[in-house]
Design brief:
Elements (H helix, E strand, L loop, with lengths): L1 E2 L2 E2 L4 E3 L9 H9 L4 E4 L6 H4 L5 E2 L2 E2 L1 H5 L2 H14 L5 E4 L7 H11 L3 E4 L18 E6 L2 H11 L9 E4 L5 E2 L4 H4 L6 H13 L6 E4 L5 H9 L4 E4 L1 H4 L8 H8 L6 E4 L7 E4 L2 H7 L20 H6 L3 H9 L23 H10 L2
Parallel strand pairs: 3-13, 4-7, 7-8, 8-9, 9-10, 10-12, 12-13
Antiparallel strand pairs: 1-2, 5-6, 11-15, 14-15
Helix pairs in contact: 1-4, 4-5, 6-8
Length: 357
């Protein structure tokens, strides 16, 4: 798989997962094994017990400047590159995040070879990478219409996506669909991929990468046969030794059942998928931790206004999961997370994904 100037041996991208689920150990090892490792830029102020956050309030990075810590991200990417022996490393930066442009520039300056952006339509993404011509740009879309809009907007920068990820509604975390649309057949991955492939052909035939609910080699082969250049997988990589997630996070998935994984409301304004734990029960009972916006992490939340509506702060609950707090943590996973039954090395997982179970 070729993305921009970079060649990836295996057609597999490891999805970006914050806070602290895909940082240096996971991303670096995935790239070392010939796939594409992806560092998440979300919550880098929490890296190595918050040592890269210049200002803490109640133990939490204050404001987006510290939550999306440049020093933390720089350290993570440097470590990932060292682990990967300088194989390409991508960085996932959410478009909904506050300080999006600054974080993209931080990632480029830190040495990220590619920037992946979802959680909104990154119509101005090239504006922040104009001084980094070698950095490949990869938007995440949920429709051919979204790709067309991005390409039209990017023409003013004389730039087109180096690849596009089309993500269906079986993925973990935030969805690019309403709750009802997540359940409709017309929006399932196998039905939205073909129109995106056709749209991509109109703009230079960039690589199309399928994502959302992909689990094994059969799934990979299915989408490659449809014309995709590769796939993105996130949840499957949580079940690896090298995954940066806390062991409690991994155990929650290992112990989950199919019915435990659900869509729920998020302060971002879109449904999100994760494991139902004690957190969701306390939200219903209105006994969840009080919402106090300290990190100001995502623009749609409007400094905690939406968090109060849905009953929890997403920055605080993801960071609680990062430190292994099973009582108040938010544990994102795709629909297949319950299928994790044991921890593997990244090497073993890549072998399974490329050679079969």
């Amino acid at each position: 798989m070729k993305i921009g100037k970079y060649k990836i041996k295996h057609p597999i991208i490891q999805g970006g997962m914050g806070v602290g689920v895909s940082w240096d150990k996971l991303a670096g090892t995935v790239s070392l094994e010939g796939a594409l490792g992806v560092v998440s830029a979300v919550g880098t102020g929490y890296y190595q017990d918050r040592k890269y956050s210049d200002k803490l309030v109640r133990g939490k990075p204050k404001d987006a400047l510290n939550f999306y810590s440049k020093k933390g991200l720089t350290a993570i990417i440097a470590s990932a590159k060292q682990i990967s022996k300088n194989a390409p490393i991508a960085c996932n930066v959410l478009y909904a995040s506050n300080d999006y442009g600054r974080t993209v520039i931080d990632a480029c300056q830190a040495g990220a070879n590619m920037i992946i952006t979802g959680a909104g339509l990154p119509t101005n993404m090239p504006e922040f990478t104009k001084n980094f011509p070698d950095v490949a740009l990869i938007p995440i879309v949920s429709s051919a219409r979204a790709l067309k809009l991005i390409c039209k907007k990017w023409k003013r920068y004389n730039k087109l996506p180096d690849a596009v990820i089309v993500e269906g509604p079986l993925s973990g975390g935030h969805q690019g669909f309403s709750y009802d649309d997540c359940l409709k057949e017309e929006f399932q991955l196998e039905n939205i991929v073909p129109p995106v492939i056709e749209e991509a052909k109109k703009w230079g035939n960039m690589p199309v990468i399928a994502a959302g609910g992909i689990w094994n080699k059969n799934d990979i082969d299915k989408f490659m046969a449809m014309g995709c250049s590769g796939v993105q997988m996130a949840t499957r990589f949580i079940g690896t030794y090298e995954c940066d997630a806390h062991s409690n996070f991994k155990n929650i998935l290992l112990n989950s059942k199919k019915d435990d994984i659900k869509l729920f409301k998020s302060p971002v304004g879109l449904p999100a998928r994760g494991v139902v734990t004690n957190l969701q029960k306390t939200i219903e009972q209105k006994t969840a931790p009080k919402v106090v916006c300290i990190s100001n992490c995502v623009a749609p939340c409007n400094r905690g206004v939406e968090a109060k509506v849905v009953g929890y702060c997403i920055a605080d609950r993801l960071s609680a999961a990062q430190i292994g707090d099973e009582e108040t943590g938010l544990f994102f996973t795709g629909t297949n997370g319950y299928k994790l039954d044991k921890i593997l090395s990244v090497h073993e997982l890549i072998e399974k994904l490329t050679k079969g179970e």
